[in-house]
Design a protein that fits this description.
Elements lengths: L1 E5 L2 E5 L8 H6 L20 E8 L2 E8 L12 E3 L12 H8 L9 H13 L6 H8 L10 H12 L5 H4 L1 H11 L5 E4 L4 E4 L3 H10 L4 E3 L7 H4 L7 E4 L9 E3 L3 E5 L4 H11 L1 H8 L4 H4 L4 H6 L7 H7 L3 E6 L2 E6 L4 E3 L2 E2 L5 E9 L5 E8 L10 E10 L2 E10 L6 E2 L1 H7 L6 H14 L10 H20 L12
Length: about 475
């Protein structure tokens, strides 16, 4: 059973297919067709909805892709769709801004833009162009163009008058607290099931007893098996209702990040330690995806083109793996064994990600190359972590994604850098060594020749930045 608020209406669902997405739930059983399906893969934003959840003594509003969100994610939250914005016969201010600024033409994408603008308005104190561009980067429009939509964002955020959601916030908070999950549960339809543990101990016990179950955190990758490949997921265990897996803590020497912490919650801590990591996270899919996708999930799905693993490997990150009552620590670089094959044992899951904090004398750079600047998958992703002393590279950790079947360190390149001066001769030796480290494949994103040359050029870019620190070149790359 799950309970949640559909705007102000309490919904209690005892028997639903756990493979049902929020998009199909809205358009089907609820008869709310305002939320559109454009791509069913989280790329276009036409299905954007907003979820409200308790954060301290206030509501936090997050935009999500309804096409990639299973209904079990709604447990204990508030779901807001475009039908909820109009109040007492009047358009909401974000809807009115789209009208005033001529931000809609065919109208198919408009509900998604409106919901992204609604979340932006709720989380902003005024108009900020960069923040608006980030909030809207996950919404695509084929006919209107983005200038009038950005003008609507400025109007909506610059003159934000209180709305009915503000007036009802105290009541909504009280109602969400009343339905907050207090014990583990289950959602199923008799054939398929999704287990909803609330503690790490409960998760460990359930996964040991059901190792065939698929672990569901944000679901932004797992849901594609249902929406794109039309497969059934007969058993899932949902991690998103376990508070202990969503914490982001800072110790004296490391960041301790729960495996189910959304990427948008990891951003501040990672960006404060490593600005280049923060820059790359701005280009990690879209805000809707980052609001739901998790760091643990980006590692756990073992994609060779995942954005975070090369950076984390270069930083020397470790995983805490849990199996039943036992835990072990594993260097992240040893987690990936082969394409989609990992060192995880049966019934074992990623509990936490441990990232060393910034150390004096070390330089960290990270770059992503993709066909689009926003909302695209890497062709090549690189992380460089160099210990420098008196113009000499005392230690180098270099890792790439998109260059092999797994994200991995460039050992020959590192050997060419270790103990060598930070100069052009060292750079060219290290670039040549990359051909020993990798024999990349060609695919629709890039040819093998392009990938190798790009990997070498990213190392050159790193050297240029370190040798000419006054030159502003530290914008993440794109092709």
């Amino acid at each position: 059973m799950i309970q949640f608020l559909l705007n102000r209406e309490l919904r209690t669902e005892h028997a639903l297919d756990p493979n049902l997405t929020v998009l199909n739930y809205l358009r089907g059983p609820l008869g709310r067709p305002g939320t559109k399906e454009g791509c069913a893969s989280g790329d276009c934003g036409a299905c954007t909805v907003v979820v409200g959840e308790i954060e301290g003594e206030r509501l936090r509003y997050r935009s999500l892709n309804a096409c990639l969100t299973f209904v079990s994610a709604l447990h204990g939250k508030q779901l807001i769709s475009v039908e909820d914005l109009k109040h007492r016969g009047r358009l909401h201010s974000v809807q009115q801004a789209m009208v005033d600024c001529h931000g809609s033409q065919c109208g198919f994408c408009t509900p998604g833009f409106v919901m992204s603008l609604f979340a932006l308005q709720k989380n902003s104190d005024g108009f900020d162009k960069a923040g608006s561009l980030e909030a809207l980067a996950g919404n695509l429009c084929r006919c209107t163009g983005y200038r009038p939509i950005l003008a609507a964002a400025e109007q909506a955020c610059a003159a934000h008058d209180p709305d009915h959601f503000d007036a009802e916030q105290a009541e909504t908070l009280a109602r969400l607290k009343a339905i907050a999950p207090r014990s583990g549960g289950e959602l199923g339809d008799g054939e398929k099931t999704c287990l909803l543990p609330l503690t790490v101990d409960e998760l460990a016990e359930l996964y040991l007893a059901n190792p065939q179950a698929r672990l569901l955190a944000g679901g932004t990758d797992l849901a594609l098996e249902v929406t794109q490949f039309h497969r059934d997921l007969p058993a899932m265990i949902h991690l998103a209702h376990i508070p202990a897996l969503k914490t982001v803590e800072k110790d004296a020497d490391r960041l301790d990040i729960g495996a189910a912490a959304p990427l948008s919650d990891c951003y501040a801590a990672l960006a404060a330690e490593y600005p280049d990591f923060g820059e790359l996270l701005h280009r990690f899919a879209s805000l809707q995806i980052r609001n739901q996708g998790t760091l643990g999930g980006n590692i756990g799905n073992a994609s060779p083109i995942g954005d975070s693993p090369p950076l984390l490997i270069a930083l020397g990150a470790h995983l805490v793996l849990r199996q039943g009552a036992s835990t072990r620590r594993l260097p992240l670089e040893d987690y990936f064994l082969d394409y989609k094959v990992t060192a995880r044992r049966e019934g074992e899951f990623i509990e936490r990600v441990l990232v060393p904090r910034r150390q004096p004398g070390r330089a960290f750079r990270a770059y992503k190359v993709s066909k689009r600047l926003d909302d695209d998958i890497s062709a090549v992703c690189a992380g460089f972590n160099l210990a420098l002393e008196g113009g000499v590279i005392r230690e180098a950790r270099v890792a790439y994604g998109g260059m092999a079947a797994i994200p991995k360190r460039a050992r020959a390149c590192e050997a060419a850098l270790d103990g060598a001066p930070l100069d052009s001769r060292t750079l060219e030796r290290a670039c040549a060594a990359l051909a020993e480290d990798f024999a990349p494949l060609s695919d629709f994103r890039a040819s093998k020749e392009y990938r190798l040359l790009t990997a070498q050029n990213l190392l050159r870019k790193c050297f240029i930045e370190l040798l000419t620190p006054d030159v502003e070149t530290r914008v993440t790359s794109h092709a």
